[in-house]
Each structure stands twice: as structure tokens, then as C-alpha cells.
Amino acid sequence: MSPDPQPIAPVAAAAAPAPGLARDLVRLARPKQWVKGGFVLVGPLYGLADLARHNTGASDWLEAAQGAAGAVLAFGFAASAGYVVNDLRDRELDRAHPRKSRRPIASGRVNAGAARLYAGVLGALALGAVLLVPGGEQAADHQRLSQGLLGLCVLLYAANTVLYSLFFKRATVLDVVSLAMGFVLRVLGGCAAVGVAPSPWLLSCTFFVSMFLALGKRLGERRTLGADAAAARDVHALYTDDFLRMSVVVTGVATLLSYSDYVVSQSKTYTIGFNLLWLTILPATYGLLRCIVLIERGVYDDPTELATRDRPFQAACAVFALLTVGLLVGVKLGWMT
Fold this sequence. Notes:
Blueprint: H1 9-15, H2 21-29, H3 42-53, H4 58-89, H5 91-94, H6 112-130, H7 140-166, H8 174-194, H9 200-225, H10 229-232, H11 241-265, E1 271-272, E2 274-275, H12 281-297, H13 303-309, H14 311-332
Antiparallel strand pairs: 1-2
Helix pairs in contact: 3-8, 3-14, 4-6, 4-7, 4-8, 6-7, 7-8, 8-9, 9-11, 9-12, 11-12, 12-14
């Protein structure tokens, strides 16, 4: 009598093991979205020019870097906690989405209780990172002020994120305004961490470029999902393609105009023959217009995905950053007149 055949199901399961809990928790935190933390560094970056003009020492630069790092971590952990809350809220809706159904909570790999605990841990880490803002004994009051302002910005950011998940994401225009304010709060927090006063142009430019990104995401979703967009996100039932296309262009133009005003205002700082800061307008314009083209064609449904995958867009960002940092170094070395 021949032996019974061995079952093959366990072998197949062993060949393709399910992702572990640790891997799912990392995915749930969406570390790729931490690229948005770059907005935290905008204020400190442009504040370097003030540090350079005041001939500050190495310790001041080190403290500024430490404060900026603390702000990045604080908003990164706060953002991850917000994503967990959002996924908890939308888990039933995500199960009907072809891509979002694979998320850890929607797929059932992470249960609701564990997700709530994880969101609490991430929130605690965000507040803990605020304490990284430095300050010596003689600067204790300044340190407490910086930590307090940064902590307030992080708490407002967290509150805005929760309100977005519960209410704002289903309200026309208010949904993208809420998302844009999340970026503005990042910039304010970064400025607070290094003791830099945010200028009106910085806040305006941040607000408009954030609106551009949020509206671009809405348009990209309609391009990739088509008639299923409203099923994936309720607010799409209230938007039209024409409105989103017009709004993307309007906010894009407003972003460039806001930044151009800043470039003109800095002519005395960055001029050697002519205002060298004007050169940064070139990669900024190219990157923004390329973003519009790719979203309109439906190549990407999320500007964050575009920023992490599209090489020409990344090159434009790199050129913009190199030019800006190079000019800031030039101010430090006294090359500008």
C-alpha cells in the first residue's frame, strides 16, 4: 500500500510567508511620507543667512542643527500617528480600494487595538522629540520658549490631522486647506525650533505650494481611478475635473509669484552683478510644471510618490537645493555685496 501523499499547503505557506508584525508596523507609519518633513527645514535653511550675517560661532550652528533635527523627528512621528488614526477610521472604505486594501489595518494583519496603542506610542515619541531642542544654562528661557512653541505647533498639527480624518476630508476645499495648514505648521515648528521668525512670504509660499500638492493629489486620483474616485474618497463626488485643473494651475502660479517676491526682496543680499537668487526660479518653475504634466497624464496619483520616483523632478529639486545652499554659503563667506 503506497504512503499517503503529503499535504502541500504548508509548504506553499512556508515558501511565501506573510509579512511580520514589525514590517507591518513600519508600513503603517508610512516612513516614505517623512519626505514631507523637508518643509520643517525651510525656515531654518533660510534662517542660515541671518546666522551668517551675525557671524555666529560653531556652537550656534550646532544648536540650530540639533533643533531642526528635533523638529523633523517630532513632526515625523506626529504624522505617522496621524496616518494610523486615518487608517483606523477608513479601514472599511480601504477594503474596497484595489491598492489601499493591502494596508496593514484594512487587510486585518494589524488589529484595531494594536493600532490604537501604536498611534499612542508614536504620539509620545513626537512630544519626546520636542525636548531635543537645545539650549545651555544661560539660554534656559529661550530653550523653554522654543520647546513650548514647537510643542504647540506639533499639538496643533496633531489636532488638525485628527479633525481632517474625522470631518475635513469630506468637505469641499476645506479638505485641501486642512492639508495645507499641516505643512504651514511644519514650517512654523521648524522656525520655532531654531528661533527664526517666519516671514510673510515664507508662510504664503508654503500655503500655496501645499494647496498645489493637495489639489494635485485630488486631480491625480481622478486621473488614475476614473469613475471609481468617488468610491475611494467621498469628497470626489463634490469636485469636478475642471475645478481641480484650474485650482492646480492657480495655486501653482501663486506659489511661483510668492517665491518671486522673496527673490526680489533679497536683491541686496545675493547680488554679484545681478541677483543670483533669481537662478533658483528656473528649477522651481520646471519642477512645478513637470508635476502638473505628470499628474494631468495620470502617471502619478500622489505628488509624494512623484517626488520619490521621478528622476527629472528629483533633479530639479536637487538643483534648487544646491543653488540655494551655495548662495547661503556665499553669504557666510562674504562673497555677496
